[in-house]
Amino acid sequence: MTIEVYGKKGCGICDAAKEKLRLLGLPFTEFDLAAKIELHDGWRTDGTEALIVAHADTNLGMPIILIDGEAFSYPDAMRKLRRGDA
After folding, report:
1. What is residue 56's predicted lDDT score, i.e. its pLDDT?
2. Which of 1, 42, 55, 80 is deepest in the core (most CB within 10 A)?
């Protein structure tokens, strides 16, 4: 299972999500969402497009948590991880 956390500096909810993942003993990689969704060569094929869509269209808010490439809000990600669905 891979977990990626996309947030921003100074976001208390983002920090809470990362701390919860640490307490659960789940390894994750964290990214600055603003830096990750800037358009650049290859943005359509490196996962940036999916993050833009998840953030804009589904209005997930912060942070966006990807579990095996699927985007979740913080509460939904925690429910999924606690149930063991991941």
Report:
1. 61
2. 55
Nearest alpha-carbon partner for 62 in 70, 86, 71: 71
Amino acid 57: pLDDT: 55
Tell me the CATH architecture of domain 3-83: 3-Layer(aba) Sandwich (3.40)
Please list, in sequence order, all residues whose beta carbon lies within 8 angstroms of the beta carbon of residue 39, skipping any fewer than 6 positions away: 48
Which residue has better confidence, 39 or 12? 12
The two structure tokens encoding residue 19: 């701390």
CA distance 86 to 45: 24
- C-alpha–C-alpha distance, residues 40 and 10, integer Å: 25
> C-alpha angle 47/61/35, rounded to 5°?
45
Using the predicted structure, report yes or no on whether residue 67 has a pLDDT greater than 80: yes
